[in-house]
Amino acid sequence: xxxSNVKLILTREIRDQLRDRRTLFMIAVxxxxxxPLLGMSMFxxxxxxxxxxxxxxxxxxxxxxxxxxxFEDKQFAERLFADGxxxxxxxxxxxxxxxxxxxxxxxxxxxxxHIAVQAGKYEAALYFPPDFATRLNAFREAIxxxxxxRSAGRDSAAAAVPLQVPSPEIIYSxxxxxxxxxxxxxxxxxxxxxxxxxxxxxxxxxVPAITARPFSLESADVADQSGYRGAAMWSKILPVMLxxxxxxGAFYPAVDLCAGEKERGTLETLLSSPAQRSEIVVGKLLTxxxxxxxxxxxxxxxxxxxGWMVLSHLKGFGLPPPTAIAALAVALVPIAALxxxxxxALAALARSTKEGQYYLMPLLLITMxxxxxxxxxxxxxxxxxxxxxxTGVVLLLRSVLEGDYWRAVQFSPMVxxxxxxxxxxxxxxxxxxxxSESVLFRESEQFDMGLWLRHLLRDRQPTPTAAAAVCCGVxxxxxxxxxxxxxxxxxxxxGFARIAVTTQLAVIAAPALIMAIxxxxxxxxxxxxxWPPWLTIPxxxxxxxxxxxxxxxxxxxxxxxYPVSENAKPVLQKMxxxxxxxxxxxxxxxxxxxxxxxxxxxxxxxxLSGFRHLGHKWRAIVxxxxxxxxxxxxxxxxxxxxxxxxxxxxxxxxxxxxxPSVVFHLTxxxxxxxxxxxxxETLREMRENRIVGELLNDCRVHDLxxxxxxxxxxxxxxxxxxxxxxxxxxxxxxxxxxxxLPCAKSPEEALEEAIERAEK
Length: 760
Fold this sequence. Notes:
- The chain is mainly alpha-helical.
- It has three domains: 54-211, no CATH class; 226-438, no CATH class; 467-677 and 716-759, no CATH class.
- The protein has 32 helices and eight strands.
- It has helices spanning 3-19, 21-46, 109-118, 132-151, 157-160, 179-204, 223-226, 231-264, 267-271, 277-311, 322-349, 353-358, 360-372, 383-386, 391-401, 405-435, 437-440, 449-458, 466-486, 493-519, 523-526, 536-561, 568-580, 584-611, 617-630, 635-655, 659-676, 680-688, 690-697, 699-708, 721-739, 747-759; strands spanning 54-59, 71-72, 75-76, 90-94, 124-127, 169-172, 709-711, 717-719.
- The strands form three sheets. A four-stranded mixed sheet has the order 4-1-5-6, with helices on both faces. Strands 2-3 form a two-stranded antiparallel ribbon. It has a two-stranded antiparallel sheet with strand order 7-8.
- A hairpin with a 5-residue loop joins strand 7 and strand 8.
- The two termini are 14 Å apart.
């Protein structure tokens, strides 16, 4: 790579961007003006956001005269409020002691209060039962008599009987926005009033009021001494702002540098220059990174200054520590590189700037969950979360902002490694986009439904396109989503079998078969329905058995990294118990045979064949495996299924047939079912068999078996490391054998290989 060419392209692109007044405004002017204006707007709006008064109907309050004061001058007593001025926010309306004689006497006062609140005349009603004060006074008198009898050495059985006091009731409506506010205010007032009554009862019984509350809690905020005052708020704001502004700061320059050049007709001139495609990509990438970093920095500085000036008067709020600022600066570079490469690749795919702007929404839809996930309660930086792209960066920055440096140091290598891998893959994708003439020189076209349908039926290729493969995969995922939520939880194996069979046939196999018949010229070639070299069939079965110990280890590792939620555990346990009671052969048919056929037709048949038109074998293998993993509803199962799907797709590509993939899938699922059925009772039955029992009782066989496998606590085989290592070595040998098989290439793959050979 010629660095001088990269420098020339970089300076050219920066100069062109700086000539665009819209770019300068978005990057430099808008961040400086936006947040101060927002702060001023907040102050202006705050003048109208005053506490609103609420109307409260009070029923039965006339009988409370002998109790601690609840009302004063037709308002609640000010001593019941933390802030006495808040008493005016409750506008009280006292109902008459006796209803009028004109029909109202037929309505119960409590019912009348319900009707009044429901009609919206009052935001809430406070209802005291008619005998509330009488029963409460009787309760207090009983307490007083018992205290007198106890001091005189007498035992009063009557005074010892507790009296039931009816409870006041707050009547409100969640259909009215102000009604829950009135309920909250009334609840706090009645809580303090109840405490006052309790203090009087203690005095009546001869016990000091301090007995119920012998001490009060004191608090000390150590953040004032550590310099991290208000770090919790900054840790939730700054990392999210950093990532979102790095993304948006990279997107619009990328669209202008790629799709904009297509519209202006200057891209062809640049491509015909002596600079290589990779040098052009690096020059444009550095330009986009520069604007992304500048945008993020200016926005962060502006929001930090504005936020500090606006919120500095709040208790427990301060500036972020200097170390946190340094961490944000260090994290900004790889994040800007990642988003810049993604935006550059998407912009190269766009035919025009208008189309390129449409791609921002899908990119945000993918990024936002990864950014928002760390803000969820209970999500912290650990080994599992550090391996999630973008999420790990946000959690790492949050730990640094909160001063948890030891945790940040522990997991920073994992976060840096995952981010670096994601950056390299994104840059590689951008380079591939610029190396593809069909991507760079796509012409704008008008969409016509009739012409498009005729094109699909008339110009069908033997195998589907990559777009058709994506449509098939998305259709399966959408149908799988609705079926999984609409189906009821099965109560027995028959119900589970009906759901599983319906899902496999109607949701997974049917879309692939229908699309293969309608959209392709050769469904047989699309679905890889041909006989492979005969040795690949037993090799696939042996490969599945050899990888079975490693699959079990991966399941344990994934479960430890991402534990199953407590809400899902009862459902999974119920499902496991249901499957344990099923007939073994029926279970194999539903769990192993049917998925091996239906899922292979869809994912290693139609979808894999479509993705092979991308021109890269491994890209097609990985994409089809990802779709395969996403169809499994549980996250832990999806991750393992994606890894297994890579192996299955590799067998389909190397053998050129679907049959080895079906055999591998069938063997893999059958071994999982058999392993789940092994229990202590199963071993006991095996020992009762004369031949098997003699083998198991032999000391040498017994020691060998225990060195390789043991029975788990919850049943099933737990493979020891010798079995895992031996199985993995055998699997590598079998995969190496598959690698040397002659592999039929798609026309795009053959063209890409020819281009790579020519460049070398």
